[in-house]
Amino acid sequence: MKSTDLAKLEEQCIQDWEPPCVAACPVHVDIRGVVRAVRDGAFATGRNLFAKATPFVRVVSEFCDAPCQRACHRAAIDQAIGVRELERVCVRLGAVPPAGPSRAAKTQTVVVIGGGLCGLSAAFDLARKGYAVKLYERGSEVGGRLLTGRAAAARAALAADLEPLARFPVSIRLGRSVDLAEVVSTESVAALLDLPACDAVLVATGTADSSTPGVPVEANRAEGLETFATDLPGVFLAGDVRGADSPASWSPIAAISEGRRAATSIERFLQKVSLTYGRSLEGPYETRLFTDLSGVSPESPAAMADAARGFDPDEARAEAERCLLCACLECLKVCPYLEKHGSYPRVYARRVYNNLTVTKGNRTANRFINSCSLCGLCAEVCPTDLNMAPVCLEARRTMVAQGKMPPSVHDFALEELRRANSEACTLLRHAPGRQKSTHVFMPGCQLAASRPDSVAILYARLRERLGPEVGLMLRCCGAPAEWAGREDLLETSLATLREGVQKMGNPTVVVACPTCADILGRRAPDVTSVSLYEVLAA
Ligand code: SF4
Ligand code: SF4
Ligand code: SF4
User: What is the rounded CA–CA span in Å between residue 293 and residue 290?
Assistant: First the structure.
């Protein structure tokens, strides 16, 4: 397997795509993880998962406009899962110790202009990464549009979120407006604010009004992605100041997401790495994940006795139980072998690749590679037609070629093949008293060995149907050689079979075994064959 083949397989299996709720969430909360935590009553775990996506857990769990719920598969069946309420119960009941910056302090300073959710989100993300951040807000408090129309509750939630963030290296200066017309370089900003240094600037001042001079530049896009960078090195724009969002569509979670993405751009700028690489799935996107919804019954949303407080643990668990934990895994539903190995084809493909390319260490996928029955049922049910049979078969051939196939794996089947095609067990002849054959019956090694009485009955029946000139061929088609990756043995077996059929005058081979039919059809198409069952049904 080449690395490009592996990449194609990994692309083809869509199981790792996020469910629609997570793809629609601008910060991609691990909703299935939160749901599982709530089901287990592990609210601190749920809160931790939520906090990985945003430190503003109270603000978001109380005021998010929940685009995840609009995308939830349940919405089309009964009612979307109350994701925001599940997050809210985790925040309320899941006590976690406050975290500090996760990385060592860096020497660079970033100035953030604007203390709305976008600016705050960027500031704390950068501080978490170790940068010194100086945030300037022209008003008397931070929060921006979050406070519009819901000041008291929003202020309390924001204060609760900001309290543990006090340990981050962010200094917030209120009542300090910055003349945006003078934001023409990082140096100009440092001079304007009397700072010894400023390595990057984020302008996140919200919607510019006519009394506020605008920033003299616009944010750029690169390779179709929003980078929030401008033509001024080190100067970034995010949030409504970009003019991208109209006031009517303002969303707290979109603002937080934008701040987070701008922080990523700023860090990449300061680290002197690509602003765009690997970022195509930031912000909301369309997922490719398929989830079979047939057979899903409508279920009423969990009742909430006290809406002001939110779910209690039992109510939350009931709501979490409604979640479908959306996934594909169609192939695992039909293949016990794929299920038994504990993962799914995207992961299996990587394991197979590693197994074939490992130079030191264990070949841990030997059993997986050699267990597949090569039936191809996975491809029948897979929404992208991924077939693990050729993957496993090719891997076996490679292992044989490398001399890395453990002899024990296929020894039994190959010994069966050797015996079935030995002089003692093979037979090829015209019908008694006949010198030629229009057909020859090939019951296959399994039927002949296990039910010789049935072979005799079927042979007699075939002669009634097809006339007296039906010969008999007892042998194995060579399938075990193919299963074992032994192309040499398969070719030898097929050559002998072909030679025998030619000697009989090329009669049509009537095969009882579907595997024989498959092998002859694919590997010896020059030998005319027909299924026993088609003959009997005619
Ligand atoms: S943050 Fe908002 S959009 Fe994201 S999962 Fe939570 S409620 Fe949904
Ligand atoms: S059912 Fe659960 S996993 Fe599926 S989209 Fe809805 S919240 Fe997400
Ligand atoms: S059916 Fe299996 S192989 Fe196909 S996309 Fe789904 S998980 Fe992947």
Answer: 9
Q: What percent of the chain has pLDDT over 70?
A: 94
343 and 430 together in one domain: no
Total domain count, the chain: 4
pLDDT(255) > 80: yes
Domain that holds residue 469: 415-537
For the stretch 3-30, pLDDT in tens is 899 999 999 999 999 999 999 999 999 9
Do residues 163 and 140 touch, judged by C-beta distance below 8 A?
Answer: no
Is there an atom of ligand 1 within 6 Å of 253 CB?
Answer: yes
- Model pLDDT, residue 94: 94
Q: Is residue 221 part of a domain?
A: yes
Question: 298 and 158: one domain?
Answer: no
User: Per DSSP, what are the bridge partners of residue 441?
Assistant: 472, 510
Q: Is 410 within the bounds of a domain?
A: no
Q: How far is the CA of 370 from the centre of ligand 1 (A)?
A: 43
Residue 475's nearest CA partner among 509, 523, 522 is 509
Ligand 1 atom 2 nearest Cα: 66
- Answer positive or negative: Cα dihedral of 442, 443, 448, 452: negative
Whether residue 426 has its Cβ less than 6 Å from ligand 3: no
Residues 449 and 386 reside in one and the same domain: no
Question: Do 153 and 264 reside in the same domain of the chain?
Answer: yes
| Residue 64 Cβ < 6 Å to ligand 1 | yes
- The response to whether residue 29 sits with its C-beta less than 6 Å from ligand 1 reads yes
Q: What is the CATH number for 266?
A: 3.50.50.60
Residue (of 47, 142, 133, 59) closest to 98 by Cα position: 47
Q: Give CA–CA dist 34/449, Å, rounded.
A: 56
**pLDDT exceeding 90 applies to what percent of the chain?**
80
Ligand 2 atom nearest the C-alpha of 324 is 1
The answer on pLDDT for 248 being more than 70 is: no
**23, 363 contact by CB (below 8 A):** no
- H or E element that contains 203: strand 200-203
Question: Are residues 155 and 225 both part of a single domain?
Answer: yes
Q: What is the pLDDT of residues 451-486, one digit of tens each?
A: 999 999 999 999 999 999 999 999 999 999 999 999
Cα of 85 from ligand 1 centre, angstroms: 10
Distance 496 CA to ligand 2 centre (A): 57
**Last residue of a domain, which of 359, 379, 405?**
405
- The yes/no answer to whether this complex scores an ipTM above 0.90 is yes
Q: Is the CB of 325 under 6 A from ligand 2?
A: yes
Atom of ligand 2 nearest to the CA of 81: 7
Say how many Å lie between the CA of residue 467 and the centre of ligand 1: 73
Q: Which helix (H) or strand (E) holds 48?
A: helix 43-53
Are residues 212 and 347 both part of a single domain? no
For the Cβ of 329 lying below 6 angstroms from any atom of ligand 3, the answer is yes
Nearest ligand, measured from the Cα of 16: 3
User: Which atom from ligand 2 is nearest to the alpha carbon of 322?
Assistant: 1
